[in-house]
Design a protein that fits this description.
Blueprint (H helix, E strand, L loop, with lengths): L1 H25 L3 H27 L5 H34 L16 H18 L3 E8 L2 H27 L5 E6 L2 E7 L3 H15 L2 E4 L8 E3 L1 E7 L7 H11 L5 H10 L1
Antiparallel strand pairs: 1-3, 1-6, 2-3, 4-5
Helix pairs in contact: 1-2, 2-3
Length: about 270
């Protein structure tokens, strides 16, 4: 009996730690994430009780004690079923557009169609629940000149390398999307406004001056420089297009949606 209780405690500890780490890295929805974390904490406490009972106490009625632990775990399982349902609904909501390709063939990250849908979803969540939401614009400087000199293949290589580096630097819950040629937009759920400056600085230090075309020597290699801008969702005062415009404007670049509106008007 002692061996099986110790094994159960070890498995419960392992599962609770796994759930906490997974929820933290993959779920941007704060309510769902906290639900899984609370469930993991309760599971961990049951594991502690099992371990304590087996190592330090022989006075407790084992049958009654194990029955109580099983009751608590049964309640946790029931709650987990509800959390799993909400998690599946959340993943379907933010990660799919039925029947339509959502990946950019050049950079390999999400395309503009997915970006706009996902950003609208996150803005709605920000307005409803007060979840902090950040948006970062990324623009390769002199991208047109890069394309003219090295052709579409060269510019595609540059865009692909930038996209891959961005994905490595960000969380799994963040969205990296191609907005237009040489331009990316990052959607950062659950990111307070105070964290954006530090994040942008880390991105800049890692990407600015990055070698995108290796020519076999220092002089023949091509490095790129990048403009970064940022904006933050405020409750009921921003929509997705405004956030993107504000992010590009903050870096001194032309606001893409404002430019499009002007072109249509003219």
């Amino acid at each position: 009996m002692n061996f099986f209780c110790l094994l159960a405690a070890a498995l419960l500890f392992a599962s609770s730690i796994t759930v906490v780490k997974t929820a933290r890295s993959t779920l941007a929805d704060r309510a769902i994430r906290r639900g899984w974390q609370a469930s993991a904490v309760v599971t961990g406490l049951v594991a502690c009780l099992l371990l304590h009972n087996q190592l330090f106490s022989n006075e407790v009625d084992t049958t009654l004690f194990l029955g109580g632990c099983m009751f608590i775990l049964s309640a946790v399982v029931a709650i987990n079923v509800l959390l799993l349902k909400k998690t599946i609904e959340y993943i379907k909501e933010v990660n799919t557009i039925s029947g339509i390709t959502v990946l950019d063939p050049v950079s390999g990250v999400f395309n503009r169609l997915y970006l706009e849908q996902r950003l609208n979803t996150e803005v709605a969540r920000c307005h409803r629940y007060g979840s902090p939401l950040g948006v970062v614009s990324v623009e390769i400087k002199d991208f047109i000149l890069l394309n003219d000199e090295y052709g579409h293949q060269g510019s595609a290589i540059a865009a692909s390398k930038i996209a891959k580096r961005l994905k490595v630097l960000l969380r799994e819950t963040d969205v990296v999307a191609s907005f237009s040629a040489g331009r990316f937009v990052l959607v950062l759920p659950d990111t307070p406004e105070g964290s954006l400056t530090g994040l942008v600085n880390r991105l800049r230090s890692s990407i600015d001056g990055m070698v995108v075309i290796d020519g076999g020597g220092v002089e023949s290699s091509v490095k790129i420089n990048v403009n970064f801008g940022s904006s933050h969702c405020e409750l009921k005062t921003r929509n997705g297009q405004e956030l993107i415009n504000e992010a590009f404007s903050s870096s001194g670049q032309e606001s893409p949606y404002d430019y499009l509106t002007e072109q249509i008007a003219n």
